[in-house]
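Hello forum,

I keep getting stuck at the same step: I have a sequence, I want structure tokens, and every attempt I make locally crashes halfway through. Rather than fight my setup again tonight, could one of you with a working pipeline run this one for me? It's a single chain of 153 residues.
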Amino acid sequence: MEDTSLQEVLTWLQHLVKGGIGQELETRSLEGLCITQARKGLIRCSLIVPSLASDVDGNWHVGAIATLMDVIGAVAVYSVLNRVITSVEFSISYYSTAKIQEHVEIEAKVVATKGRLTQVMVEVRRKGNGELIALGKQWMASNNIKVAQVSKL
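Reply #2:
Ran it on my machine without issues. Output:
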């Protein structure tokens, strides 16, 4: 983790998880997130699904899953580009559900770059048996702003 862009974005993610920056929706969706591996273009995390991210049936809310996938995908892309990015296309396929307090693993991997566009794939799997819960494909466009320049507002 010697790359400064990776360090910057991981510090930003830790502040987001703790609620120091960002919106309540992100904090609720990321509560308890642990980074297990981080290198340029690849982020692996684990999470025990927090109770604040549940739907009425006690399942992990699909909106919370989407928020998590968006954030972790953006972290993977930033680690490569060292620039703030904007989602321009985001699709998620849901294959299963997870219950509150269930342990899941998340992997975001940059898979393509074309000009100012970068694609990242994010997988969410059940820890233990590796069952696929959700698969996200996202294209992001880069700009010339760095994380340190982004306001807390």
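The radius of gyration is 15 Å. If your local run keeps crashing, start a new thread with the error log.
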